[in-house]
C-alpha cells in the first residue's frame, strides 16, 4: 500500500478472516472441516470413550445370563487301600473309586432381579451412547478452537514480525534525521526502545504459536502445515436465543444421559429389593460312581431333580439398608438432572452472548483499524514538518498494531463462539457438520454381543 510515495509493509485487514495465508498454499490447504474429520476418526480420547461404550454394552448379556441355565461338570478319582489281618490270614484290597457327574441349575423366579437388571443394563447402554455423543462434541469443539488458535497466532506473529520490520525502518530514518540535526538523541533512543519491545512481543507471539500447534496436534493428530481459512458454524444455529435454549434442554446429550442415569438408579432399587422376595429354582444332576476294584467293577448311576424355594425372613437388616441407600441414590440422580439442565442453559446463554459480542468486536475493530491507519499516516506527515515527535509516530504505529491484533482475535472468537453455541445446544456432531468421514455406529457392537451365549472373542476378533 502506497502512501505519499512510501510503501508500508503493514497488511490491510477487513472483516473476512485471512489468517490462513501465513501457513498455506491455497491449492494444498487443509480445511477446517477436514481437520475436524481427522479428530473424529482418530482422537485417542474419543476412541477411548467408544471403547468404554463397548464395555458397557457387555452389561446386557451379563444381565441376561440370569435367565439362562448354568451347567457344571465334575469328576473325581482316588485310591483306597484296605489291609485286613486276622490270626493266620491277611487280606489286602486296593480300590480306585471314581465318579463323573453333570449338574444343571435353572432360575425360575428371583424376585424380578434379572428382569430389572436387564432393564438397568439397557438404560446404561443408552446413557453411554449419550456420553459418547457428549465426548464427540467436546473433541470437535476443542479441535475447532485449536484450528482457529493456530490461525490466530500465525496472524499475530506475522503482524509482530511486520511491526519489527517497520520499526527497523523507522529507526533508520530517525538516525538519518539525527545525523543532520532534525531530531535529538532522545528520538533515536525512543525508536530503539520501541524496536526492542517489538522484538520481545514477536518472540512471545512465536512461543504462543508453538503452544497452539502442540494443542492442535493433541486434538487433530498431526502437525498443522497448510491450513485454510476458518469456517463458522452459524448456518447450523437457531435463529434466536430462546429457540437455542429450548433445543439445548431437549437435545443435549448430557441431559439425556442424566435421565438414563435416573432410570438406572430406579431399576437398581428394584434389584436390591429383590433379595427380600422368594427365590425359586430347579436343579438337575446325573452322577456315575465306579468302585474301581479291578476285578469286578460296579457302576452306580444316580439322578436327581430338585426344586428349591427360598423365602427370606430376616437377614439382619442389610437388604433394608441397601434398599434405602439405593432410593437416596436415585433421588440424588434426579437432582443431578436439574443441575445438568441449569448448566446447559447457562452454557447456551453464555455461548450466545460470546458470539454476539464477537460480532460487535469485529465491527469495532474494523473501524479502529481504518481510523488508526489514517491517524498513523497523518502523524507521519505532521512529523515531517515538525508538528509531531518521533514518539507520537511510534505510539500511532503501536496503536494500529494493537487494533489489528484485536481484529484478528475477534475474528477467531466469532468462529469459535459459533461452535460453542452448537456444542451448548447439543448439535455439534460429525453428521451435523457434514464431515466427510465414516460414522462410528454405536449400535453395531451392541447388536453383535447382546444375544451372545458363548465365546470370549470380541466382535473385531480380539
TrEMBL record:
It is found in: Cell outer membrane. Keywords: Cell outer membrane, Coiled coil, Membrane, Signal, Transmembrane, Transmembrane beta strand, Transport. The keyword Membrane applies. Residues 1-29 form the signal peptide. Pfam families: OEP (PF02321). Its main location: membrane. Gene3D superfamilies: Outer membrane efflux proteins (OEP). Residues 157-208 form a coiled coil. The keyword Membrane applies. PANTHER family: OUTER MEMBRANE EFFLUX PROTEIN, OUTER MEMBRANE PROTEIN TOLC. Belongs to the outer membrane factor (OMF) (TC 1.B.17) family. This is Outer membrane protein. It comes from Pseudochelatococcus lubricantis. The lineage of its organism: Bacteria, Pseudomonadati, Pseudomonadota, Alphaproteobacteria, Hyphomicrobiales.
Amino acid at each position: 500500500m502506497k502512501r505519499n510515495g512510501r510503501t508500508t509493509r503493514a497488511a490491510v485487514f477487513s472483516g473476512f478472516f485471512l489468517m490462513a495465508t501465513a501457513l498455506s498454499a491455497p491449492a494444498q490447504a487443509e480445511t477446517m472441516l477436514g481437520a475436524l474429520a481427522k479428530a473424529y476418526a482418530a482422537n485417542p480420547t474419543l476412541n477411548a470413550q467408544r471403547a468404554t461404550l463397548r464395555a458397557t454394552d457387555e452389561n446386557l448379556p451379563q444381565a441376561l445370563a440370569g435367565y439362562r441355565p448354568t451347567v457344571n461338570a465334575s469328576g473325581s478319582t482316588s485310591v483306597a487301600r484296605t489291609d485286613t489281618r486276622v490270626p493266620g490270614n491277611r487280606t489286602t484290597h486296593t480300590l480306585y473309586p471314581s465318579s463323573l457327574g453333570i449338574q444343571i441349575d435353572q432360575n425360575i423366579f428371583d424376585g424380578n432381579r434379572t428382569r430389572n437388571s436387564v432393564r438397568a443394563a439397557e438404560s446404561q447402554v443408552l446413557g453411554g451412547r449419550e456420553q459418547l455423543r457428549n465426548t464427540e462434541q467436546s473433541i470437535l469443539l476443542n479441535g475447532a478452537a485449536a484450528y482457529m488458535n493456530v490461525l490466530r497466532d500465525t496472524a499475530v506473529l506475522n503482524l509482530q514480525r511486520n511491526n519489527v520490520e517497520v520499526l527497523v525502518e523507522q529507526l533508520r530514518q530517525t538516525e538519518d534525521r539525527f545525523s543532520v540535526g532534525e531530531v535529538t538523541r532522545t528520538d533515536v533512543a525512543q525508536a530503539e526502545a520501541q524496536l526492542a519491545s517489538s522484538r520481545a512481543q514477536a518472540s512471545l507471539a512465536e512461543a504462543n504459536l508453538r503452544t497452539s500447534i502442540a494443542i492442535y496436534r493433541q486434538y487433530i493428530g498431526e502437525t498443522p502445515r497448510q491450513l485454510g481459512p476458518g469456517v463458522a458454524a452459524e448456518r447450523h444455529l437457531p435463529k434466536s436465543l430462546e429457540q437455542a435454549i429450548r433445543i439445548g434442554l431437549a437435545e443435549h446429550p448430557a441431559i439425556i444421559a442424566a435421565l438414563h442415569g435416573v432410570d438406572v438408579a430406579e431399576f437398581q432399587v428394584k434389584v436390591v429389593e429383590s433379595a427380600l422376595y422368594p427365590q425359586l429354582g430347579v436343579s438337575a444332576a446325573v452322577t456315575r460312581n465306579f468302585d474301581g476294584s479291578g476285578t469286578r467293577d460296579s457302576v452306580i448311576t444316580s439322578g436327581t431333580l430338585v426344586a428349591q424355594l427360598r423365602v427370606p425372613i430376616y437377614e439382619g437388616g442389610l437388604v433394608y439398608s441397601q434398599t434405602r441407600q439405593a432410593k437416596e441414590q436415585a433421588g440424588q440422580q434426579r437432582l443431578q438432572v436439574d443441575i445438568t439442565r441449569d448448566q446447559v442453559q447457562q452454557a447456551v446463554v453464555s455461548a450466545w452472548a460470546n458470539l454476539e459480542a464477537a460480532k460487535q468486536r469485529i465491527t469495532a475493530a474494523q473501524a479502529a483499524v481504518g481510523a488508526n491507519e489514517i491517524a498513523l499516516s497523518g502523524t507521519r506527515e505532521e512529523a515531517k514538518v515538525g508538528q509531531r515527535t518521533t514518539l507520537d509516530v511510534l505510539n500511532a504505529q503501536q496503536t494500529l498494531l494493537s487494533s489489528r491484533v484485536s481484529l484478528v482475535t475477534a475474528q477467531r472468537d466469532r468462529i469459535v463462539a459459533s461452535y460453542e453455541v452448537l456444542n451448548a445446544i447439543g448439535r455439534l456432531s460429525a453428521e451435523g457438520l457434514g464431515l466427510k468421514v465414516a460414522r462410528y455406529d454405536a449400535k453395531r457392537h451392541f447388536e453383535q454381543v447382546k444375544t451372545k451365549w458363548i465365546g470370549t472373542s470380541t466382535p473385531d476378533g480380539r
